[in-house]
Amino acid sequence: MVRRITRTPPYKDFLQAALHRRFLSIALVLIITAYVEAVLLAPWTSYLWAWFPVGPTGLRTSFLLLSGIWVLFLRIGQYHVGFRTSTSCLNGLIHNTLKMQTAEVFFAYFVSTAFFGPVFLATRSSSAQMNLIQHLGGDRARINEKPLFLGSYLFLIALAQSIFHLWRDEDRMVFSVDKNGRKKLHSDDAIFRQITARIPALIIQTTSASIIMVLVNTLVYHAVLRSFIWGWALTFTRPFYNLPRTSMVPSAWPLTLTTIIQCSYSGFLLLFMWNLSNVCFSNLIVREPLKNGKPLTSESKDPNGSLLNGLKSKKLSAKSFALWELSLIARSFPERRRAIFEDIERQDGPMWSQVCLICVNILKSIDTRLDACNAPAVPPPVPATTAAASSNNYEYRRRAYPPIRDNSIYQPHVKPATMRSELERAIGHVITTGSQTSTGISPIAKKTLKQARDRLISREHQEALAHEHVGSWFKRIALAVLENDFIGPFFRESFRNRFNAVVFGAPYAEISMYLNAASALSALSVASLSEDKLGKVYMDVGNLVKTFTGIILNIEHSKTTFPLHWTDVKGVRNTPEVDVVLAEMKSGLQEILGEFEIYASDLRLTPADVRLAKEACAEKDALGQAI
Asked: Where are the transmembrane segments (predicted)?
């Protein structure tokens, strides 16, 4: 009888299904926002058609939804986990400027603006004076500059929003943690209440930004863009309208009170839709990997196998969610914990052994990076080709002796005079004739040059032009720039950024992986005392204690000895991200020691190991001393 092989569903099947449900929730919020803005843009000549969804309001909603959906597409296509670990803002700018993802951000916001602008202009009444063409009588017409000013305003908003999007790294999925290093748990209702509570702040922020951008657009439009936009507007409209032949820019400015109000109103609607979409995406997409109050993999035919597949995933987002689910199982789901302890017949080893190995390797990656950073520089090896070449030269020099003479050794040998020998003799004579000849400049000439220099350049200027003074001048300028509160942070390589890059790696790092790995190991170890009937966990507890101790001590030692960069004028050794991971590892180590210290001898833990573990758990001050 042929044995049927059961396929383990991959973890991404359950994760993608959960993410799709969350995407639909975000799309629903976006549809509601587009409908509300469509109602606000209605002319209100009829109280029925102003809000009735089947009609002009529904059409406006569709176009506004097309405007907002581009931001949603952008977030779905570029979401990632982990914060940037660039050593400075300048390095991050250089690293990300030429990426395709950067161009996609600008493209998405510009296309969104291109859909929004015509909808807004089409809903303006004649009193707003936002028609592109103004008829003067008969077939005479002229271009109205106010819509051009509005278009410039909207596209400057798109440019500013794109830069702000990249600066804040809006595409990051933030796994927020509390003070104890554990993930904050929120129900769906709590998340929606949190979003609703942020709406007043969004309104204030959007209103202020729209007004500020009116001032910015006024300066940029009249200084740079006015003639350019006016020329292109004439080019596109002349084939359809009888416009004046002159291409001169109008003498009257388009900036009136009506224009300011219309620009601020359009900017408010566009920015509010973008900001609300980003807030909803950031809050709704990062929720607990639960479905109906149970872990995502609970519906799998092989829950442990699907979870293990996620833990081994090469995609950072899937691995982060799988580790989060493992931490939730270890803390809150006894049935799944027991299933992990009892699953011992897997192909690559028991479930606990594989989970333990994966989590330990994640934590040990910190140790590996710190050791690589603290290791002394190794001189580069000598290439084999260079060594071979040197040996060949040596052999060639051995064979370079002249042959043995066979003539009389008493006969004087007269070396023939050649041009080269005569030249060498002359140069040697010049060198040995004295210091005056060797210098090439007589003392009288030196004295004359010094007198001319003293007459043309004052002594103060001569001292200022000295090499050490020029270097100190550049140093003072650099320090003044670095100490400036507005410009300095852009160039500083702070201790926090550099140490984060060493501890967590680059270019992105997700600290929730380390938090959940440490939390899962400590919770499973403690729970194994009452739930692990086979005793598989007991054999690994001693190694876990040593691993946690070594990593904690290595991080604390490296934090106190890690050098400061010369641009770090503040010199503050503050690393909140590393401190959160340290706090979670210390908490986990304390939990393990609290339950297993009485079994230290059985776990092959010496008194020195226990003492070091307790020292690692102790709180340290800024100098690394135990409190």
From this structure: 21-42, 62-81, 102-122, 148-167, 199-217
* 376, burial (CB in 10 Å: exposed 0-12, middle 13-18, buried 19+): exposed
Question: What count of other Cβ atoms lies within 10 Å of the Cβ of residue 249?
Answer: 13
What are the pLDDT digits (tens) for 317-368? 999 999 999 999 999 999 999 999 998 888 888 999 999 999 999 999 999 9
Calpha distance 244→222 (Å, rounded):
22
CA-based nearest residue to 235, from 247, 224, 226, 253: 247
Structure tokens at 623: 């100098």
- Residues 463, 469 contacting (CB under 8 angstroms): yes
Task: Please list, residue by residue across 390-399, b when 16 or more beta carbons sit within 10 angstroms of its beta carbon and e when fewer do.
Answer: eeeeeeeeee
User: Is the N-terminal amide bond of 507 cis, ω within 30° of 0?
Assistant: yes
CA distance 310 to 317: 10
Which residue has 């779905």 as its token pair?
Answer: 76
8 A C-beta contact, residue 318 and residue 12: yes
Residue 253's φ and ψ, nearest 5 degrees, are: -80, 145
Can you tell me whether residue 514 is helix, strand or coil?
helix
How many Cβ atoms sit within 10 Å of the Cβ of residue 263? 24
Which residue type does 352 have? W
Rounded-to-integer distance, Cα 26 and Cα 279, Å:
10
The whole-angstrom separation of Cα 68 and Cα 70 is 5
Rounded to an integer, what distance in angstroms lies between the CA atom of residue 177 and that of residue 603?
Answer: 33
Tell me the CA end-to-end span of the chain in Å, nearest whole number.
Answer: 68
Q: What gap in Å lies between CA 396 and CA 418, rounded to an integer?
A: 26
Angle formed by the axes of helices 316-332 and 351-374, to 10°?
120
Residue keyed to tokens 């210091």: 435
CA distances 118 to 56, 63, 67, 189, 271, Å, are 14, 9, 11, 37, 16
At 102, list the tokens. 């950067």
The string of DSSP letters for 407-452 reads S-SSSPPPPPP-HHHHHHHHHHHHHTT-HHHHHSS-HHHHHHHHHH
Q: Where are the domains of the chain?
A: 21-284, 290-374+492-617
Q: And the tokens for 68?
A: 């907002």
SS3 assignment, position 505: coil
* CA angle, residues 132, 134, 138, in degrees to nearest 5: 140
Model pTM? 0.79
Q: At 98, phi and psi to the nearest 5?
A: -90, 10
Q: Give residue-wise pLDDT tens across range 556-593.
A: 999 999 988 888 888 888 899 999 999 999 999 999 99
